[in-house]
Amino acid sequence: MIRLCNNTDTDTIYQIINDAAQAYKGVIPEDRYHEPYMSISELNHEIHDGVVFWGFEENHELLGVMGIQDKGEVSLIRHAYVRTNQRNSGLGTKLLSHIIALTDKPILIGTWSSAEWAIKFYLKNGFSLTSPNEKKMLLRTYWDIPERQVETSVVLCDSKWTLREGLAIPRKVRRK
Mind listing the pLDDT tens digit for each residue in 55-83? Predict the structure, then answer.
């Protein structure tokens, strides 16, 4: 079952993120990887900054989490992680489908350019890679990340997203 996470889930979210992020070790740039991948204070900051986590729960245990963050004209998918022993079980797709249904805004997702499995997952679920120039503009506009992370990341967008004159415009209001 998918449910909204609350403050009693913070430690479990922390554990899931850091368990799943082990996949990044030796894959993402060495200067961007550290253990824990996300500290509890970083997680609390993300929650305080508006990231709302949803979790997939089975037998009263959270097995995966995914956050959504409202950024005005767009929504960001943030911190999508499934426990290592639950990978490739469909939990990520279920969480993503649930999150997508929560908003009618265009959705953007940032991930490491070397995390090929994550990129393939989002492409399989209907997202598209933005151009390198769009990526830079989007990461600098909607995320608060270091320049090194901008250089080593990609942004994926859903079908409601387009760029026109450098502004985010949902397809349904785009002028021809």
Answer: 999 999 999 999 999 999 999 999 999 99
